[in-house]
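Dig into what follows:

_____
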Amino acid sequence: MDLDRDLRFSIFISIVFLIFIIDTHRVESRGTCHYFSVVKKNWETALDICMGMSMCLADFDTEKHFRILSSLTLSHSEYWFGLNRNFTEDWSYVSTHHSRRYLPLESGLSDEHHNCAVIRSSDQETFGVWAARCEEEKMFVCAESIFCMKEHQFSRYSSGYNSLPRHEANACRR
């Protein structure tokens, strides 16, 4: 009986912790909410946190995504997102396993020992994508996704294509 109560309490604390560390800087893009973390974690832990909230590390895979980033005032200059080559030889997104589709001009993914990608501010107005060691701790961006690591997630959107319309004024509020 005490073991069951302890397990429920542990799960409750974990959920509160996840909400605390991720609930900041919500931005809507193409119908998908992006959640910018307030703590630094390595890439794998960031992925686990996103999946624990029925999301995935974000796909920044279009020029429009990077234009939206440029319009934000972000508190840090580097963020983990879903692009990696941990599971395949080529760079792909963890949510869809699609190959990278778009990279800004100021990008560099050539380092063979760095298998995770970060979005890095090149200056005040532009962002690029760079390879980094997955073990490094950085801020990260989660987004709603139908799949993540081939597991079904229970959010309403995937890669910005709506499966349910959002009519509320502040669509990104949880």
